[in-house]
Specification:
single chain, alpha+beta, Arc Repressor Mutant, subunit A, Beta-Lactamase, six-stranded antiparallel sheet, two-stranded antiparallel sheet, 8 strands
Length: about 270
């Protein structure tokens, strides 16, 4: 998913967003810290913060500003209006319960990975890592199984655009850092229908991911299952994980596509 950019911008809105991004990145901040980060004067920063505070989008606690609870309303609105979320949530929960592992439903936004929903089974590991990831939409697509499943179904031009913009930073020494190697792997993903993350994001964690495609065969997201590498070294376990993830992706696809067809029929009547 790319955002339109026709060059038209409102400076005051840009500044407000920069201030909110600064609060997010710093985990809460003072006026002076935000002024230093954004290059704006303390007076300008304070004016923006006062307005945001009045609307509930930031809150002041002991002289520091943090993001406000009102933003949760917007976040829930975005998620609840996602067709992928509505039809994928129960499937994710079911797969996590059946396997005991961590299952994630993700979308691509502006070339990065955003966790739309996730569920943790009783044997899930790395939960703290995943929970922290919810707060930051800076997870790259090339080192996650779900991310690679999506990349494999984008055009080569779109993938090249994503790589040019965001690069191929390494998370571990196993992360793919060469674009030609990446394209070779994406071709394998398309051929077999699933992607693998072999300790490329976190040492000791292995994941399998499959894309969720719309009726035009375009990726609208992906589902993945993560487990300790030691479990995936068991061929029977690994094969079962692949089968379950691909089945889950197929169920979500059918539900989404059926919903879209019904919606089209409703609108045409």
């Amino acid at each position: 998913m790319t955002r339109d950019d026709d060059g038209r911008r409102i400076k005051s809105v840009d500044r407000t967003v920069e201030i909110m991004e600064g609060i997010h990145a710093l985990g809460g901040a003072t006026v002076s810290e935000l002024a230093e980060r954004t290059g704006l004067s303390p007076g300008t920063v304070h004016t923006h913060l006062s307005t945001l505070d009045d609307r509930g989008f930031v809150r002041k606690v002991d002289g520091r500003y943090d993001l406000g609870y009102q933003l949760m309303v917007f976040g829930e609105y975005v998620r609840n209006h996602s067709t992928l979320y509505r039809h994928g949530r129960e499937v994710v929960d079911g797969l996590a319960d059946e396997t005991g592992d961590a299952v994630h439903l993700i979308v691509e936004d502006d070339g990065l990975e955003v966790i739309l929903y996730e569920s943790f089974g009783q044997d899930a590991v790395g939960t703290e890592f995943y929970i922290q990831n919810r707060e930051f939409a800076t997870r790259h697509l090339h080192y996650s199984a779900a991310g690679k499943a999506i990349l494999a179904h984008l055009s080569r031009e779109r993938v090249e655009e994503i790589v040019e913009r965001h690069g191929l930073p390494g998370r571990t020494d196993r992360t793919v850092g060469d674009v030609d190697v990446l394209f070779e792997e994406l071709e394998r993903v398309r051929d077999r229908g699933f992607a693998v993350n072999d300790e490329e994001a976190v040492r000791g964690l292995h994941a399998v991911g499959a894309p969720v495609l719309d009726r035009y065969k375009e990726p609208i997201g992906a589902i993945s299952l993560s487990a300790p590498t030691s479990r995936h070294r068991n061929d029977a376990f690994a094969d079962e994980a692949v089968e379950r993830v691909m089945e889950a992706a197929n169920i979500i696809e059918v539900n989404v596509q059926t919903s879209d067809i019904e919606q089209d029929r409703f609108e045409s009547e």
